[in-house]
Amino acid sequence: MSTDYQQSRSVLGARLRELRFTCPDGRLTGRELAARLGWPSSKVSKLENGKQTATPDDLRAWAEATGQPEVRGELIHRLAGFESHIRSWRRALANGFTPLHESLSIEIDRSTEIRIWEEAVVPGLLQTPEYARHVVERYARLLGGGGDVEGAVRSRARRQDWLYQPGRKVRVLMWEASLRSLICPSAVLAAQLDRLTGMIGMDTVELGIVPFAASVRIVPANGFWLLDDRLVVAEDWHAELWLDDDDNIALYSKVWRTLGESAVYGGEAHHVISAARRTLDSR
Q: Which of 49, 107, 179, 201 lies most in the core, judged by the most C-beta atoms within 10 Å?
């Protein structure tokens, strides 16, 4: 999590604590405020200590419960700049790809279950080094900076050690476009598809493919990772978003489950991958 983001959240938490201390009808304890709000006491503690990101509704309720409704606008304004924890790619890449990869690797190492949705690329935990190199190079050309491409490739390769540790599980959902997008030469993609085929049946990997022909209940877009039930990492063209509030975690979990209803697994997934592989052979 970025230092700027955490500092901003901690500052907001300190302001919330100040409001609890300065209630017009007397200072409230955390338990008393939680009772007024109908929240668990742990939520009050997490918000005040910068351990959870407040929602606008949380802030409005806090202002009302502490008898200071006039501060609602101020609190929401404070939240607006960091609500979704946006890590600008351009700013992050000023220091190269390696620190960017290492910060995510720390969170991956903390996790026992990871759920991934990718709509157009094979996820990093399953990438071959050569495929990873082409993915990283594409981002480097688009965004500038990030000159340590080989360092980033090595970092992705080391991260895959996670797959071979007991008690770990990665549940991957991929749209069929991920199997066919030529973001690398055909031979590199062919080797990547061969690796995916070999990973079907691993006890630490559950691989689901959403075929082009599948009926889907939601638009198959916007790749993201769910690390346990504590953090969402989502990517957009301009930034990476780290979301750790309960509402967003619940939303992304629902999106992941909904997409999973259209996926095929095991032998059927193998068939979809093999069909994409045969297309490459015929080029």
A: 179
